[in-house]
Design brief:
The chain is of the alpha/beta class. It folds into two domains: about 5-190, Rossmann fold (3-Layer(aba) Sandwich); about 215-315, Magnesium chelatase subunit I, C-Terminal domain (Helicase, Ruva Protein, domain 3). Helix content is about 50%, strand content about 15%. It is built from 14 helices and eleven strands. The strands form four sheets. The protein has a five-stranded parallel β-sheet with strand order 2-5-8-1-9. Strands 3-4 form a two-stranded antiparallel sheet. A hairpin with a 2-residue loop joins strand 6 (about 125-130) and strand 7 (about 130-135). The two termini are about 40 Å apart.
Length: about 325
């Protein structure tokens, strides 16, 4: 079986395990292939935890879930030096961040020091404890969640940390047919006592797939289209005067890099050897929504960031 066929099978099995959240499943795989991190926002009970846990179960990787709370300490993530009475020496005990897949549940409930510790791990792929720098696994992905309904007692993520996430995906409620299927799936899992799917793709397949993604062709006009889209977030007034008033700060060059890598990953997942304009357009909201800062005028008028992005997509033409 080719590595692409393996990922198609992985996609199919994930879709059966996580019903009604096709976008989340696809974005998880895109983030994995593009070697980035995913921020997921949605109400409780929408299979966010189940999605990444199901993905980890089907791969030969380790998985840790961290519940972020206001009393969490950086050492609870990174680990710490522990004194060994038998050897009279300190030994490092690694924290959950040393896993391949990390679920940072309700990341905005932890204080700034904890968020910054996770930021170093995400950005540098390493952890500094006790004067030593320790590398993280080659395959390392953080999926962080936020609950948009409850903001009391939360710590908003700073823009610098938001920018480290490759994608920011919103999940919504399933339709009636999907919810019925979810009910039957969970009932079946309870009766059999298991929900595990035996696939266990080796880590070598993930690394091979990432190399294949890098070979997906991105034509020069599409490269320019990506740059024009990101530049338009910083110079929106040139396209639309009102839009220019709505955007207080545009996206950084990381947005261009993210659109590049993610569009290649999405095209590869769909079995194509080249990127199409619709790949970029489909990914643009997830790449840009956490990188744009809207003005007070936009907030006062109830303008949502997705509406701004869709307007930009209609204004910026493909050369």
């Amino acid at each position: 079986m080719t590595v692409h066929a393996s990922f198609l099978q992985l996609h199919q099995q994930l879709s059966r395990a996580v019903i009604g959240q096709q976008l989340l499943v696809e974005r998880l795989l895109v983030a994995l292939l593009a070697d980035g991190h995913l921020l997921v926002e949605g109400a409780p009970g929408l299979a966010k935890t189940r999605a990444i846990q199901s993905l980890a179960e089907q791969l030969d990787v380790s998985f840790q879930r961290i519940q972020f709370t206001p009393d969490l300490l950086p050492a609870d993530l990174t680990g710490s030096e522990v004194f060994n009475a038998q050897t009279s020496k300190f030994a490092f005990r690694p924290g959950p961040v040393f896993s391949h897949f990390v679920l940072a549940d309700e990341i905005n409930r932890a204080p700034a020091k904890v968020q910054s510790a996770l930021l170093e791990a995400m950005a540098e792929r390493q952890v500094s404890v006790g004067g030593k720098t320790r590398p993280l696994p080659e395959i390392f992905m953080v999926m962080a969640t936020q609950n948009p309904l409850e903001q009391e007692g939360t710590y908003a993520l700073p823009e610098a940390q938001l920018d480290r996430f490759l994608l920011h995906t919103w999940v919504s409620y399933p339709n009636a047919a999907d919810e019925l299927a979810i009910m039957r799936l969970v009932r079946g899992e309870k009766s059999t006592g298991t929900n595990k799917i035996a696939l266990q793709l080796p880590q070598s397949s993930i690394l091979e797939a990432r190399k294949a993604v890098q070979k997906v062709h991105l034509a020069e006009p599409l490269e320019k289209y990506i740059v024009d889209l990101v530049q338009a977030t910083r110079q929106a007034g040139r396209y639309d005067e009102q839009l220019g008033r709505y955007i207080r700060m545009g996206a950084s060059p990381r947005a261009s890099l993210a659109l590049d890598s993610c569009s290649r990953a999405l095209a590869w997942l769909k079995g194509r050897a080249e990127v199409l304009p619709e790949d970029i357009q489909q990914l643009a909201p997830d790449v840009l929504r956490h990188r744009l800062l809207l003005s007070y005028e936009a907030d006062a008028e109830g303008v949502r960031v997705d509406a701004v992005i869709q307007r930009l997509l209609t204004l910026v033409a493909l050369a």
